[in-house]
Fold:
Amino acid sequence: MVARSIVVTGASSGLGAALARAYAAPGVILGLVGRNPERLTAVASACRAAGATVDEALIDVAERAHLEAWLISLDHRNPVDLVIANAGISAGPPAGSASEDADLTTRQIAVNLLGAVNTVAPLLPAMAGRGKGRIALIASLAAYRGLPYSPGYCASKAGLRAYGEALRALAEPHGIGVTVVCPGFFTSPMTDRWDGPTPFVISGDRATRKIKRAIDRSRRRVSFPWPMVLGMRVCDTLPSALGDRILRGFRFQIRSA
Structure:
């Protein structure tokens, strides 16, 4: 698939910024959504320098009405071929705590899951009417099995993975492809806030290449690295007491942003 009008959320840093730069080229129109004005401006400038036309917007993806209006306006001017719902945040309970603050949990669900729905839903009717388009949803290997030190994050990504799998089966007969992405650890500002082991971590550039290649090849799913994928799947199939014991030993804490 050759996409010429592309929306990327969470484009002001990390994977979103890297994907925006990777897709920037002459003849490409990029709609970039982010929350940090300085970083978003820098990403947009880099994409323009690569020859792309850029329309950037400072929008919190949890703000459905604002995001919907901007997306529909963009699609009217430049019919969207590809939307990458990448915006995400992470948090976790304090060390030694038995629970995560409800505000932290609901905020992660609002951004990571509902923010992706807010990004995708306004564009689906027009894509279906044109009979073409692709949606990429950036979930996580945390979607495969809940990790005891990030319950809200895991819940949001598990919900996003399930949403994407269901949406793909629903939308494909209308000409819309869906790629569900479940990466493990890669270098990024989010990973920088992770205190704990990061097994099989890869560079952010390598992760970007893997994800872009999967999207461009219209793959339905991409999960990596395989040792982590296998480990998470095995933990999900083990008796719950054994899986809990294993993952309880995988200790980490996510520092505040």
About this structure: The chain has ten helices and nine strands. The mean pLDDT is 95. The first strand starts at residue 5 and ends at 9.
